[in-house]
Structure formats: structure tokens, C-alpha cells
Amino acid sequence: MKRLRMLREKKQLTQSQLGKLTDISPSAIGMYEQGRREANHETLLKLANFFNVSTDYLLGRDNATESAKTPKDLAKFLENTEVMFDGEVHHLDEEDKQKLKNALEFVFWQAKEKNKRKPKK
What we know:
The chain is mainly alpha-helical. The chain has two domains: 2-58, lambda repressor-like DNA-binding domains (434 Repressor (Amino-terminal Domain), Orthogonal Bundle), CATH 1.10.260.40; 74-117. The chain has seven helices and two strands. It has helices at 2-10, 15-22, 26-34, 41-51, 55-58, 74-79, 94-117, and strands at 82-85, 88-91. α1 (2-10) crosses α3 and α2 (15-22) crosses α3 (26-34). 12% of the residues are buried.
């Protein structure tokens, strides 16, 4: 699983840190990265969930980096202090985060109301 190493390094994690976060031994992670050992189904799912990718992506069968099945968690997004918009990085303070959250909640409520009014097929 060559992609495992890339994903781990992208998050700036050591094998030991990843092991603690996923409850997988660092030596096993090293062997997976080197292709000396194959992860079982449960371990593949743990790693895919941790990195928010599909198991097919981890195994090199798919090039989509993010899992299409997993929705983004708005609360986690709003924890970030930096966001990229229109190619520029913007730093958000608590007031900016609250304004963004309020605007998104407004849009979500509107979408919910619009979906209620759609005729059933």
C-alpha cells in the first residue's frame, strides 16, 4: 500500500503516531507501506476511515482521493483557522467562524425547505 505512506506523510504523522491513532502497530504500518504484508479487511477499513478515502484508493484500485460516501463534517471544517477561497488562504478568528457558520446554516435550512416542497416521484 504505497498510498498509505503518502497519506501518512501528508498528515505529517510518523508510523508510531498513526499506530496510536488507529490502534495498529507501527511495525505493521511499516510492513503495509513496504508491501511486505497485506492488511486484513478490518484494518483496511480503519485506515480508509482515518484518512477519509476508500479502501479501493488505499489498494491502488481507484484514483479518487476522498470517499464519496462520507459527508464532510461541518463542525470539523469550522474548527480550522485557515480556509482557502478563490485561491487565497484566509485566516478566520472566532467572529469570522461564527459568521460563516450562520451563513451556512441559513443555506442548509433553505435547502431543507426547498427539498420538502419537491413533488414525490
